[in-house]
From TrEMBL:
Superkingdom as given in the UniProt entry: Bacteria
Protein's recorded name: 4-hydroxythreonine-4-phosphate dehydrogenase
Amino-acid positions noted as binding a divalent metal cation in the UniProt annotation, renumbered to this chain: H159, H204, H259
Record text on subunit structure and interactions: Homodimer.
Pathway terms, separated by semicolons: Cofactor biosynthesis; pyridoxine 5'-phosphate biosynthesis; pyridoxine 5'-phosphate from D-erythrose 4-phosphate: step 4/5
Residue positions binding substrate: H129, T130, K267, N276, R285
Length: 320
């Protein structure tokens, strides 16, 4: 029997609880998962059943969403984060990590969090989910991948201003990103000899130094070094020609130099089905590629597609 997926509740005042119920309804005959959270935060009338162990998820999932109960101190007024709930949100994530690392769950899927509420209520010291998970796993280097059926992209630098990218894009940073990406494609996606397309930093990949020297002086030497080790790398490539259908057919993932260079293509191609995957952890972690959506929380109109795809991807990766 396959182990179930753990789904941490995320911010209870956001859309996380309602899309969890919608995802369960869509997936109950396909794959079992259990939700870690407070059932009082679920939509009125939601079909759920409390479980005492992840192993109970299979028995319950056909008729109700399995819930591993987590206590929260505050209320859950939809659209209004309560910092009193910060510790409960953190505890739910930690519980999920422990269950996956112990082998009780196959993978962790995380619903969106609200970082300010965590900082205000629990002095949360991390920029986001990814960095917190890395700390829980005692990892220094992890990588964010956005993935769908049409494209996998990895930004080498993430949440920093564009003006800071050239300084942050060191050879060590790029090499680590490429090593982690290749290893994950092999071990978690089942691609034995992955081909990775690598974007240049500047327009036209610098055009021989006419539009910047980083492509020739920083990126190209790293690619040469890793090719000598057997990596299959294309680049540095002009980013504006990397993402049409013909180009995408030639690689398994694209490594880009900054946030928007990576995320604009995948969100244009497959906005609702993009999945956030953390590479470099000792366990599988996926997440929907959207936020808490306070503006529509509680209205019953939130689209669960990205969460459904995140749960499906977690299940596929755990089967590899």
């Amino acid at each position: 029997m396959k182990r179930p997926i753990a789904l941490s509740c995320g911010e209870p005042a956001g859309i996380g609880p309602e899309i969890a119920v919608k995802a369960w309804d869509a997936l109950r005959a396909e794959l079992p998962f259990f939700w870690i959270g407070d059932p009082a935060h679920l939509p009125a009338g939601a079909a759920y059943e409390l479980i005492s162990s992840p192993s109970d998820a299979h028995r319950v999932s056909g008729s109700a969403m399995p819930v591993l109960q987590q206590s929260f101190a505050g209320s859950a007024q939809k659209g209004e984060a309560d910092s009193a709930n910060a510790q409960g949100v953190i505890d739910a994530i930690e519980t999920g990590v422990l269950l996956v690392k112990s082998g009780a769950a196959a993978a962790l899927c995380t619903a969106p969090i609200h970082k300010k509420a965590l900082q205000d209520g629990a002095a949360f010291a991390y920029p986001g989910h990814t960095e917190f998970l890395a700390a829980l796993d005692d990892k220094e280097d992890v990588v964010m991948m956005l993935a769908s059926e049409q494209l996998r992209v990895v930004p080498a630098t993430i949440h920093i201003p564009l003006k800071d990218v050239p300084n942050a894009l060191t050879p060590q940073c790029l090499e680590s990103t490429l090593r982690i990406t290749r290893a994950a494609l092999q071990t978690q996606f089942g691609i034995s000899q992955p081909t990775i397309a690598v974007a240049g930093l500047n327009p036209h990949a610098g055009e021989g130094g006419k539009m910047g020297h980083e492509d020739d002086e920083v990126i190209a030497p790293v690619l040469e070094k890793l090719r000598a080790e057997g990596f299959i790398l294309n680049g540095p490539l002009p980013a504006d020609t990397m993402f049409h259908a013909g180009a995408r057919a030639g690689y398994d993932a694209a490594v880009c130099m900054y946030h928007d260079q990576a995320l604009i293509p995948i969100k244009t191609l497959d906005f609702d089905k993009g999945v956030n995957v953390t590479l470099g952890l000792s366990f599988i972690r996926t997440s929907p590629d959207h936020g808490t959506a306070f503006d529509i929380a509680g209205q019953g109109i939130a689209n669960p597609t990205s969460l459904i795809e995140a749960l499906r991807m977690a299940a596929r990766m755990s089967d590899t």
